[in-house]
Write a structure and sequence with these properties.
The protein is mainly beta and 271 residues long. Helices cover 7% and strands 41% of the residues. It is built from 3 helices and 17 strands. It has helices at 6-15, 124-127, 234-237, and strands spanning 17-24, 35-37, 43-44, 76-85, 90-104, 115-116, 136-143, 151-158, 163-165, 169-170, 179-183, 192-200, 209-223, 230-233, 241-242, 248-253, 262-270. Strands 1, 3, 4, 14, 15 and 17 form a 6-stranded antiparallel sheet that branches. The radius of gyration is 19 Å and the shape is globular.
Length: 271
């Protein structure tokens, strides 16, 4: 079952929907032109915590947008959003946080950490394509690392079970809370299904706390003007399906030295 008609969508929005509320405080010490996660930002949804061992967060995990799971064959869709930001020329992305792990140290120079979507699978409906092409991988900072800029070598396993290292990721000096570093496949036509280890080229000088996160992008909205609400309907959002237990979280590509406050509302339509 799916919402396949405009009448069905209107009925779902009016009579069978879950409300989305966004009221996130700004993260300081950001960097323009870089990705930042709002997972640990205070507000609504509540601040998510830094994970420990590898696991699969859900809609019930603190930090996620809560919604009502549906009984099959009914499902859910992001159908309407209205957002505004405390910074101009910014955007907001909503991802399903598929799996995560934390507790990695900026002072350890041997291989550390591992996260596999084979052994820590959130389910085929949340993963999307079976070749893992819908998955985005990140190094996510929870507590600032040290002032010494280092390179991170990320070892991965691809969808065909082959292995390799990604291009070195320059962490830079003092990566701050919320910073996201994209982990991009180094082999054309192959997609990452596991990170098998992260090795720093030197100590950053401070242990801090960072980890590995796998997400699936669901939709994105633009907020070009400071404190001006922008409204997006189902067609502009792409009407993305939201499987049961999806851990919907927010991230942004910063336009200045903080993420700025982000506020908004919306609806998940069920049908």
């Amino acid at each position: 079952m799916a919402i396949t008609t405009r009448d069905g969508l209107i009925d779902a929005l009016a009579n069978n929907s879950s409300r989305i509320v966004i009221d996130k405080a700004s993260l300081a010490n950001a960097a323009a032109g870089q990705y930042f996660s709002l997972w640990t930002a205070t507000g609504v949804p509540g601040a998510g915590s830094a994970p420990g061992a590898a696991g699969n967060p859900t809609s019930a995990t603190t930090g996620a947008m809560g919604f009502t799971n549906q009984t099959a064959p009914a499902t859910s869709y992001i159908a309407w959003l209205s957002t505004l930001a405390g910074n101009s020329a910014t955007n907001l992305e909503i991802h399903d946080r598929l799996a995560h792990m934390g507790g990695l140290s900026g002072t350890v120079t041997t291989s550390q950490g591992a996260l596999s979507l084979v052994t820590n699978s959130p389910g085929a409906d949340r993963l999307g394509d079976a070749n893992y092409s819908d998955v985005q991988w990140w190094l996510e900072v929870y507590t600032a690392l040290g002032a010494t800029g280092v390179n991170a070598t990320v070892a991965v396993e691809y969808n065909d079970a082959s292995t390799g290292n990604l291009a070195a990721i320059a962490l830079g000096a003092t990566p701050r809370q919320g910073r996201l570093y994209p982990c991009v496949s180094a082999s054309a036509g192959k997609f990452i299904r596991a990170v098998t280890g992260v090795t720093l080229s030197a100590t950053t000088g401070t242990a801090g706390n960072f980890g590995i996160t796998a997400t699936r992008p669901r939709t994105m909205v633009s907020m070009p003007l400071l404190n001006k609400a922008e409204t997006y309907d189902w067609a502009q959002l792409g009407f993305p399906n939201v499987p049961n237990d999806s851990c919907l979280m927010m991230l942004m590509y910063c336009s200045t030295t903080s993420t700025g406050t982000v506020r908004g509302q919306g609806k998940l339509a069920h049908g």
